[in-house]
Amino acid sequence: MxxxxxxxxxxxxxxxxxxxxxxxxxxxDLSKTPPGPGVKPLTALQAEGSxxxxxxxxxxxHTQQVRPLAEDKxxxxxxxxxxxxxxxxxxxxxxxxxxxxxxxGNSKPSDVWQYIHLFDxxxxxxxxxxxxxxxxxxxxxxxxxGETAVPVPAAFAPKQGxxxxxxxxxxxxxxxxxxxxxxxxxxxxxGGMGGMTSAAPATxxxxxxxxxxxYSYDAGKGQSLFMANCSACHQATGEGIPGAFPPLKxxxxxxxxxxxxxxxxxxxxxxxxxxxxxxYSSVMPPFADQLSDADIANIVNYERSSWGNHAxxxxxxxxxxxxxxxx
Amino acid sequence: MQATVTAQHSAVSADDxxxxxAVFSAYTVxxxxxxxxxxxxxxxxxxxxxxPDFWAAKYLTFGRLRPIHTNDTFYGWASIGLVGLAYYVAxxxxxxxxxxxxxxxxxxxxxxxxxxxxxIALELGYNWGDLEYREWPWPIRLVFLAxxxxxxxxxxxxxxxxxTEDIYLSNWYTVCGVLWTCVIAIVATLPWxxxxxxxxxxxxxxxxxxxxxxxxxxxxxVFYYAIPKILSRPIYSYALGVFxxxxxxxxxxLLGGHHxxxxxxxxxxQTTAIVFSVAMLVPVxxxxxxxxxTMRGRYRDMTHSYPLMFILVAxxxxxxxxxxxxxxxxxxxxAIWHLTNFTVGHSHLTMYGFVTFAxxxxxxxxxxxxxxxxxxxxxxxxxxxxxxxxxxxxxxALSIGGTIQGLDWLHxxxxxxxxxxxxxxxxxxxxxxxxxxxxxxxxxxxxxxMTSGQTGNAGSPILARTxxxxx
Lengths: 327, 471
Description:
Chain A is mostly helical and 327 residues long. Chain A has helices at residues 2-30, 44-55, 104-107, 111-119, 167-178, 193-198, 207-212, 219-229, 231-234, 260-268, 293-304, 316-325, and strands at residues 137-140, 162-165, 270-275, 278-284. Chain A has 12 helices and 4 strands. In chain A, strand 3 and strand 4 (278-284) form a beta hairpin. Chain B is mostly helical and 471 residues long. Chain B has one domain (14-452): Cytochrome C Oxidase, Chain A (Up-down Bundle). Helices cover 72% and strands 0% of the residues of chain B. The two termini of chain B are 15 Å apart.
């Protein structure tokens, strides 16, 4: 019996000591991590949404941790300890089959996009392998007062009736849109590209003067940046989603010789605009902080020269000039 | 002082043997049911990568089925299978009867109750967050803890009435494995230090300790008993086994933080995890060498013993899987492989290539000794080759695909490219998974033959001593 006590008791004791040191005591300390600047607790609706998120296992494919690696900067700044003060249960995740969602409220701020994407991911991202979440929606013959139908593209919409979100879908989208990284003073935004390039020198040539001259437009880079940042809403075809996201093909601002409005929209985003006589309620996010002048010029020029558009190209200097004027 | 595996049956009656065989059979049958269910779910999940709209309804959505697959393979299949083996090994290696047959049945009921309730809760969308391997709501995890306590009590009671002075090494691993896992279950459930980042620290700890301090020691306990038993020769070095036991205890619990490299967890916690991931090479290589050296000179006998083949694959799975884990833990490697499908390949190399093959090897080697009923050679061969080839395809496909996924990110391609690039590898994974699942059906048939079939329908899995083998 003595031998058994020595082995089992000894091994148990050693284990308890190690577990206290590596897990429990650090966890006690880390549980007291104060919230970062601007990090707020979830509202009741958002909290309800985070339960829907966890119940349906969203975190098995979507992380909520941006690593301090160049490859992660597309998702935002590196996650900071204070970002998680109100996140219990933690949803950092262990796999990234789909993109990180730490900053999805900033990068896809349109609730309309979120609803269409949940209803059928392939309606907005054709290559997506995410399951549809149609069980979070109702299909009704007539939209009840106070509800808004989701403008699902015809090819993906039910043959009869209108799609309206359930309470669970509303809570989930409220939660997703709450996922916004807050700026931390002195903590560089990942890559810091916006800050680096936005200080426009006084000698920036006027856009019109530059447009006539030579410029370098990298079509491959433009296309890849467009696919990464723009095609989720405006679609690879440039045709947008009728009633939800405006087309860029034949869009007056995109196809105009003066690129100022086009550049301004990419830099600072837009909402509640009317294009081609159609009013769009969706929100477009600003890209000023994420993309350099050269990247925005590439995107803009890709849009200005694709799908039958034939507008004069813009230069990085023109982007810098619009950026310097502010929103 | 040299402990021998040869049990002394003087204090054990035929009734005790029958009761032990019934317990061992029941645990094996129960585990097999969970294996079939959990891997059928796994196969459906693999299919969904190619057909995401297939069975996308509420109760069949990917995110609810995935934790059902992982929890039921962990706590249904592997846990119940290993505990059944641990009971048999404890009783036989101690030359005594089980401390309490009744407690063994109560334990089995509790394990099953936890797994059934856990499955239903996850289906209904009740979980404790998407906290890997501890998604079950806490009351259900307390049922699992109760099953562990019953098992620990019963194993300790059995070892305490052993007829030998020494405690055979297998029992060190199984008794301590159960005790450690009780600690893990308690630490993972208490809520006071699990807010925000504090919970992340516990998640990192839990994810790896639930594997490395539960499945690993129980599977190693099977190795230490089954390999000498099949070969009728003692383990190569008892001292090396003891050394591997203590180093495993000192190093393994400290490496959980490597699941959160580059996360906001403290840098020291991450670095500690990397250091001890490297240190784990000591018990892993020491232990693997011990098993392989026990088999030295007898590899030709493999062709006569499928149980030994299963165990050899399991030893190699342990060696490769754990060494791969060390390599993965380096920051430079994590920058590419972390969060990709490579990790899924790794977890299948270890939980399948190591743990699951160890359970099979143990069952094929020992269950016929308990029940005096054997599976046919064709059945066991079919099971072996389908499972081996299937898991090989599975792991290779996800390792290559996961690397491509990581490189796509490294080269900052649009994210969706990492999804489209995975498509062919997901198809191969599904093909491997299908073979694996089919092998489980054959295994179920073999289990039926070992428990309910004809008595004495084939030879014993024990190999005769050959010349030159150590006594």
